[in-house]
Amino acid sequence: MTFTDTPHAPQPVVGDRRRWFALAIVMTAAFMDLVDVTIVNIAIPSIQHDEGATFSQIQWITAGYALAFAAGLVTGGRLGDIHGRKRVFLFGIGGFTLASALCGLAVNPEMLVASRILQGAMAALMVPQVLSIVHATFPAHERGKVFGLFGAIVGLGAVSGPLLGALLTEWNLFGLEWRPIFLINLPVGIAGLILGSRFITESKAPRALKLDLVGVALVTLGLLMLIYPLTRGRELGWPLWGYVSMAGALVVFAALVAYERNKSARDGSPLIELSLFKVKSFAAGIAVQTVFGIGLGVFFLVWTLYMQIGLGWSPLRAGLTGVPFSVAVSVAAGMSVQLLVPSYGRKVLQAGALVMGAGVLIYIWEAGRYGQSITSWQMALPLVVMGVGMGLIVAPLTDAVLSEVPREHAGSASGLINTVQQMGNALGLGLVSVVFFGVIDERLEGAEVGPAFADGFQYALGWVAAVMGVIFLLMFALPKRPAQHVEGAQDAPAAVEKEPELVS
Asked: Rounded distance, CA 162 to CA 40, Å?
């Protein structure tokens, strides 16, 4: 039986207890994706040491995931609209579980990179369905509670990911070294696959947008032409083809704009809705998301390498050192949305950029002041300041970016926001070769490693501080106080433009 969610059609069944099981399943999948990103960061130095991976390969272990995830997000959402959110979600979680197994069983760095790219592609199928399934399963009056739970899951993932990765790496279960950080997904994914097939209700969009595979191909090609030379250039002595490739990426992006304009006129289903960029606040917000993603991509990888290789700390100590940062982000994010933004609007986000930049500058000073003898307690101050700044930005930013977007384009805009942040993250990870490895001598020995990594860390953080300054300036183009006319824009990015069709 098929029915459409209209005033004359049945709504999601309030008394159906299965919806809470479905919620637990999709939230677990979202948690698995969130943790997977942070859990890998903390294990990167162990992977590099145990597998003999080059620095460009360890960049691709993280950047490959982010790139595949970004390139597939919008398409993943549309596939769910067309073929059914439940069906695509189950395919995604099954593929994510298989890719996790391949990562855990990788016999060399090349296999690990390829498996991580597959894992990112499967996450792009799985994650967009989460909010769409919630939107289709829960009536409107219950969604506030549900999205509150989702926010808590995000916070929990931010805190527990590094600790879980540190513990699994430190324990060296069954002599598997870092591999359990991936293998832990297997029982979770299998359980999600079995339970999801039973408890999740199928839903589709009655008027789903068409796929834009050419657009996806152009985006992916352009980013590869930009990021690959960045990650490999230093190792290869910056060959001419690298500069040609990066210049060619601009040509590909220009072709993408022309193609998207033509596709929009032809069938109204482009990958990127170019008309959105006529909205000044949205265009500025997309720039903020991209630049912010670049800054985070640089910071988190460099920070991990600095603590574990530069300072010689264990994964567990590095993971515990990051706890104040994660807690500060969660607390500040809650305060910014509930207390500060309603009263001060855009100033809260700009204050966040300045506070985070101040935390970075404090970290640079401490790293130079204490050198190799720096302690976790001494790092707590800059990390808390940075976490507060980041929390003031991340929670209200999406609402600020979407506030002036027409309702009919809110779904496309939300998908694009998430996509560009991941793309920025991938680009930031690629830039680590320039802003960190680029100032470190490749032939370091023994006692030279620590000071060199400390110097590289300070240099890279200088770039991150500059990024925060750029973000502060870009935020002047955001509305002073986010408007409220785009109802539900954040609640269901993949389902705002159309009501779901429930299939039973």
From this structure: 8
Helix or strand or coil: residue 418? helix
DSSP states of 94-151: HHHHHHHHHHHT-SSHHHHHHHHHHHHHHHHHHHHHHHHHHHHHS-HHHHHHHHHHHH
Give the C-alpha separation, 12 to 438, whole Å: 55
Distance of CA 317 to the CA centre of its chain: 24
pTM, 2 dp = 0.86
Lowest mean pLDDT among 275-279, 366-370, 489-493: 489-493
Which of 391-400, 407-416, 440-449 has the least mean pLDDT?
A: 440-449
What's the rounded Cα separation, in Å, for the pair 310 and 48?
Answer: 14
How far, in Å, CA of 360 to CA of 383, rounded? 8
Residue pLDDT, tens place only, 179-194: 999 999 999 999 999 9
Q: Tokens representing 423?
A: 């793309």
Between helix 18-51 and helix 280-305 the angle, nearest 10°, is: 50
Q: Does the CA dihedral 127-210-410-426 come out positive or negative?
A: positive
Query: How far is the C-alpha of 62 from the C-alpha of 41, rounded, in Å?
Result: 8
Residues 1, 102: contact at Cβ < 8 Å?
Answer: no
Please name every residue paired with 502 in a beta bridge, in sequence order, or none if there are none. 3, 203
* Residues 365 and 457: beta-carbon distance below 8 Å: no
Do β-strands 202-204 and 2-4 pair in parallel, antiparallel, or remain unpaired?
Answer: unpaired
Question: Which residues, including other chains, have CB under 8 Å from residue 166's CB and lie 6 or more apart?
Answer: 42, 314, 315, 316, 317, 318, 319, 320
CA-CA-CA-CA dihedral for 399, 405, 410, 416, to nearest 10 = -80
CA distance 84 to 65: 25
Distance CA(13)–CA(504), nearest Å, equals: 12
Give the pLDDT confidence of 264-285 residue by residue, as tens digits.
Answer: 888 888 988 898 898 888 999 9
Q: How far is 291 from 422, CA to CA, in rounded Å? A: 11
Q: How far apart are CA 200 and CA 367, in angstroms?
A: 50
